[in-house]
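Sample 3 of the quickstart, ligand nicotinamide-adenine-dinucleotide:
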Amino acid sequence: MNRSTRKIAIIGAGLVGSSCAYSIVNQGICEELVLIDINHERAVGEAMDLSHCMNFTNTRTKIYAGTYEDCKDMDIVIVTAGPTPKPGQSRLDTLRAGAKIMESVVSGVMESGFQGIFLIASNPVDIMTYQVWKLSGLPRNRVIGTGTSLDSSRLRTILSEIFEVDPRSIHGYSLGQHGDSQMVAWSHVTVGGKPILQILEEQKERFADIDLDSIVEQTAKAGLEISKRKGTTYYGTGNSLAYIARSIFNDDYRVMAVSTILDGEYGEYEICTGVPAIITRDGIKEIVELNLTEAEESQFAQSNDILRDYMKIIGY
Ligand code: NAD
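Result:
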């Protein structure tokens, strides 16, 4: 990775791509940011708008609208190009259209001579990430999907309201598909370091109203609830992408739930799904294998089976 000037390309300068760019610029995550979109004028407009932030940010980011050619010396290529699900459509409904877009994106990026790390947000993100891995030929540590990073953040936000604790003092993950079949590994959720299941057992009266299944559903359906009100979602994913990019550049060794290709971890092969992983300058350093309970293992496997069924639709 080129460490003198940190460079990121964002492919897809729509709502998620531009929210991500805004986050990157405000946090000074890289020195050079190129926006690429099939609608080049949109990318030009976003780049102009973002470049006018420079007087009000702590660091300078060179921002411009570019082409795939520019990807050749990028450290990270963020992919947010894709069809946005229409009301009533699931993320998986957009699968075929998304897969076609991904083919053109990956060939454009790889033909440039790109040697960096792919970060994918385009939905259905687990399947798109798998496809990018297959088409790019890059090692699996260098292809990362946002996966259940956003869902895990949503989970922590919901729990923070119930327990009246800062979400950053709550740890735990949604695992599996970024979608309806995701599950929460409750056996590994802690509030202030204390296992949530133990808290619920010890304080039965205080937390009598808590229904864990309903929290899982609220977490999985949070995107839908937002979309019902404002059409779609973008800030959360935009920030998740920026956060992963920052963890890569800073060689943070930060653990977060992302979509990654499993090769024997959790007993799974040839699938890309949401699990906790250690993020470093080389991408995914290691997948964290939680000791799931039998029930959790079976929920996780079911979610992966749903992903596999959809992977078949695009020939995997
Ligand atoms: P959007 O319609 O606002 O933007 C998509 C952009 O992609 C458009 O500007 C479009 O011109 C561009 N595009 C389409 N085909 C392209 C191609 N072949 N090459 C380059 N650019 C191309 O949509 P959005 O709201 O920004 O969402 C983008 C994607 O992110 C969707 O797939 C959406 O489902 C997904 N998303 C993911 C998450 C997550 O948590 N992973 C959350 C929200 C949205």
